[in-house]
Amino acid sequence: MRAHSPSSPLGHVVVIGGSMAGLLAAHVLSRHAERVTVLERDHYEAGSGPRSGVPQSRHTHVLLTSGMEALEELLPGVVRELEDAGAPNLSIPADLGVWQAGQWVSRANPSRPVMTGSRPLLDHVVRGRVLADPRVDVRTSTEVTGFLGGPDRITGVSVRGRGSDHQEYEELEADLVVDATGRGSRTPEWLTALGAGAPAEEVLETGRAYATCVFETDDAGSPDQVKGFYIVPDAAQPFGAIILPAEGDRWMVTLSGPRGQAPPTDPAGFVDFAAALPHDAPHKWLSTARPLGRPVGYRHTANRRRRYDLAARDRTGLLVVGDALCMFNPVYGQGLSVAALNAVALGRALAAPDLPSTHSLQRKVLRSSRGAWDVATGADSPMPGATGDAVRSGLVERLLNRYLERVRVRVPGDPVVCKAFRDVLFLKAPPTSLLTSPRVVFRTLLRPAIPTPPDLPTP
Ligand SMILES: Cc1cc2nc3c(=O)[nH]c(=O)nc-3n(C[C@H](O)[C@H](O)[C@H](O)COP(=O)(O)OP(=O)(O)OC[C@H]3O[C@@H](n4cnc5c(N)ncnc54)[C@H](O)[C@@H]3O)c2cc1C
Q: Which intervals hold domain FAD-binding (predicted)?
């Protein structure tokens, strides 16, 4: 990076993509830049509706404990603002019927908070906060079409306006370009067009398919005594369900199935599909609720990580964040939290007395998504039909999987194992903590699993 004034050493920063990862990165970078320009292909909807550039926003989105804390660190007061806007704040497992490894998880086990408002609501609140800062400028209906510069140095982007009859092309210079364009990122192609190599990719695909539908009930009441359900799929039981409250007395319902058994996208078929779940409580509740519109399907659920940190150590001017860098099987609900953790890592790295190299920033950002990657690929590796070079299948991995299976069956009834497992799942502790805590190891290897009652648990 070129040197600029000590108070704004980054010069002009262009962030491509004005969704969660891009906005949070822009917020952090604005403290170290002369100016930050966010380029967003979409026109932001007035209010908080889904938009085409984030098609997954029609699906259930959970913000994990780690994501809530990271977001609060970046934008103090934002959790309260989300609650005031109607986003439910639930304690897990106290508030939910969580089914794992053939049993209900005891609701008396130690809990942690998650937020379950709709994705458009979350985006709306975060966008309002970030764009209120005059140091962040946003240009909507503006699509980036490629990079300027050469293989070793990215010096800007080419853009075209959208939505008008005549599309105007323009070149925009920048000292740092941040790619936050999500799952469809074209940075590998844009780098190739400049004569630079595309990054190595790690992939793990289970072929799971999802469908989501919004429901309402007559009395806006909770399903039975719980505030929702989370039916966790695993190698032995491949059907999953997430039923969670959202703002406006609505329920977000996502069902998932293995390769070849996708949930139907007609309302009646969607409800029938829930009969395949391992307990009948979610199906019973769905049968009494009313769908608001048709279910929406989703199939691109592979875990994919692009190793920009391994390529071109000397390249300057390009940083990749959010889903464009590392995307996860959505069943684990991690992507938003990781976008916030990426921004926190970026902010901490930039707080160092000397401006870090882009390569060093990239490594730190990637490291902040590592826990989520290890959780998702660790849980997906034993799934039937899992493919890709990130599948862990060696002897050590098989032993590790056997150990983790023992952990999973102890989660429902053992408060110590449940707490440790939930901390890993909510990205509050690394997966290795399940192997290094003597209490967890003792209970996992030497104590039998504690059975929980077969009926939906009361608190
Ligand atoms: C079905 C499903 C369910 C999910 N559930 C959860 C969940 O429960 N919890 C959770 O934390 N995560 C969940 N996720 C993941 C979460 O949606 C993503 O991790 C998150 O959206 C990533 O944010 P992002 O900013 O990186 O990308 P995105 O949110 O995808 O945004 C990319 C942005 O870039 C813009 N853009 C793209 N190309 C260009 C271009 N050329 N020029 C200008 N702008 C461009 C787009 O318009 C968009 O605004 C789920 C994902 C899916 C698919």
A: 13-352
Q: CATH number for the domain including 175?
A: 3.50.50.60
Residue 277 shares a structural domain with residue 344: no
DSSP secondary structure code for residue 29 in this structure = H
Q: Is 367 exposed, middle or buried (0-12, 13-18, 19+ CB in 10 A)?
A: middle
254 lines ligand 1 (CB under 6 A): no
State yes or no: cis peptide before 93, omega within 30 of 0.
Answer: yes
| DSSP string computed for 282-307 | HHHHHHHSEE-S--EEE----EEEE-
What is the reported pLDDT for 7?
73
9 vs 89, more confident: 89
The whole-angstrom separation of Cα 103 and Cα 444 is: 17
Q: Is the CB of 341 under 6 A from ligand 1?
A: no
- In this prediction, residue 313 has a pLDDT band, given cuts at 50, 70 and 90, of confident
Q: Which domain holds residue 103?
A: 89-117+205-298
> Quick one: pLDDT at residue 221?
54
The predicted pLDDT at position 173 comes to: 97
Residue type at position 291 = P
Q: Do 102 and 225 share a domain, yes or no?
A: yes
Yes or no: say if 275 and 283 are a contact pair by the CB < 8 Å rule.
yes
How many other β-carbons are positioned within 10 Å of the β-carbon of residue 35?
Answer: 17
Which residue shows structure tokens 């590790």? 400
Q: How far is the CA of 118 from the centre of ligand 1 (A)?
A: 14
265, 298, 331 - which closes a domain = 298
Q: Is residue 281 pLDDT above 60, yes or no?
A: yes
Whether residue 117 has its Cβ less than 6 Å from ligand 1: no
148-176 pLDDT, tens digit each: 999 999 999 999 998 665 578 899 999 99
Distance from the alpha carbon of residue 60 to the mean position of ligand 1, in angstroms: 13
- 168: number of Cβ within 10 Å: 10
